[in-house]
Amino acid sequence: MKLGENIGGFTVVAEPTNSGGGRCVWSFAERGGRDYFIKQFLDPKWPTDESMGSPASKARRRAVCLEFEKRHKEVNRRISGKVAGGGNLVTATAFFREGTTYYKVTDRVAAEAAKDLTELSDRQTLVVLRTLFQSMKLLHRAGIVHGDLKPANVLLQRSSGADLFTAKMIDFDDSYLSGDPPPPDQIVGDQLYGAPEWLRYVKEDPEIAAEHLTLASDIFALGLMTHVYLVGEMPGYDRGRFGAPSQAVWAGEPLVLSGQLHPKTRDLIARMVSADHAARPSIEEIITVFQDEKVVKIGGHTVPPIPAPAPAPVGGGAGSGAGPAGGRVKINMKSEPKPAVPAPARPADAPPSRVRINFDTKK
Asked: Domain ends where: 258, 279, 307?
C-alpha cells in the first residue's frame, strides 16, 4: 500500500504505517468525497498460480485464506448496521482481496480512545458505559465474540448538543462466532485483557477446546475494562509472578478489586472476572445493574477491597507465561460547560494514540 495508490476504488491519502497495527498496515483513504480508514492485512496471502510452493502447499494456504474470508464476511454480515440495529458498532464498509492481499475499509470516525473515565462526571461515565454495554449486547445477540476487547478498541465520540460521550466499538478483525474461534496459531488478541480460557487455548492447552471460547470470554475483558474505566487501573494481582490478570485467576489467585467501587459494581465485576466462564454474568445482567445511576460513584464506600472469586475452571489446570505489563495514559475530559469543540479525528480500527489528549471543557 502506497500514498496515492488506488485500491479497490479507494485512494490512499496518507502515508501508510504499521504503527500499533500488529499484523497489518493502515492508512486513510478517500472515495467520492468521503473519508475512510483502510487496513491491509499482512497475512494470510492468497497464493497465485505463479506463487512459490507445491500444488499441495498452495491448496493448504488457499484453504486458510478461504476460512479467513468466511470468518470476516460472516461476522460483518451479522453485525452490519442494518442487521444489528445500532450505530455504535463501527463495521466494515468493504472487505476484499486484490491480488494476493486482503483489505478492510471502514468509515473514518471522529473520536478518541480513552484509557479511563476517571475525569468524567458520573453522568458522562454512565452514558459511556451504557452505550458500550448496549453495543456488546448487539454483538452478543448476533452470536459474535469481539475477541480483542480493550479500551483502545472503544472510541469516545462527543454527542452533538450535549456534553456527553458515546462509546463506539471498533476493530472486529479478531472476532469470531461463539465457540468457533480460529485455530490457536491464528487467533489474535491482547493478552492483558484476554480471558483465562483464551490464554490457555492460545497456548494449546489440551484441556481447553474451541467451544470454551464463548461470549463469556468478552465478559472477562469487559470486567477488567469496567474496573480500569472507573478507578483508573487494573484490579490488583502479583505482577511479579503473572504477566496478565488471566494468569493469576487461572492459577487460583483472585484479583483484588478496588474498595473505591460501589458495592454493587464490585460484586458484579467479581463475577465478570471469574475463572469459571459459566459463572460470569450475561451482558443483559450487566445492563440491569447499571440501570442504577449510583453504581458509577467512586469513593465513600466502607467495604474494603475484596478479591474476585475464583471458582473451579472448566478443564482444570493453571496457565502460565509472560504477558505485557500494560501502561496507561490519562485523558482529561472534565465536564464544565464550554462552546462545542469537535473531537479530534481518529479513525475507526486505528491503533491507540500514545499522546496525551486534553478534552478539558474549561474556557
From this structure: 307
Instruction: Note whether 217 and 252 are same-domain residues.
Output: yes
27: Cα within 13 Å, side-chain hemisphere: 20
Segment 152-192, tens digit of pLDDT: 999 999 888 788 999 999 999 999 999 999 999 888 889 99
First-last CA distance in the chain:
42
38-48: pLDDT as tens digits? 999 999 999 99
**69 and 131 co-located in one domain:** no
Q: What is the CATH number of the domain that holds 278?
A: 1.10.510.10
Q: What is the pLDDT of residue 303?
A: 53
* Cα→Cα distances 138→84, 134, 269, Å: 6, 6, 21
| Co-location of 167 and 238 in the same domain | yes
Does residue 362 lie within any of the structural domains?
no
Decide: pTM greater than 0.85: no
Rounded CA separation 269/106 (Å): 32
Query: For 118, phi and psi rounded to 5 degrees?
Result: -65, -20
Same domain, 144 and 78: no
Cβ pair 244, 191 in contact under 8 A: yes
User: How many structural domains is the chain composed of?
Assistant: 2
77 and 139 part of one domain:
no
Which residues neighbour 355 within 8 Å (Cβ) at sequence distance 6 or greater?
none
Residue 198 has pLDDT above 80, yes or no: yes
Pair 99, 116 in one domain: no
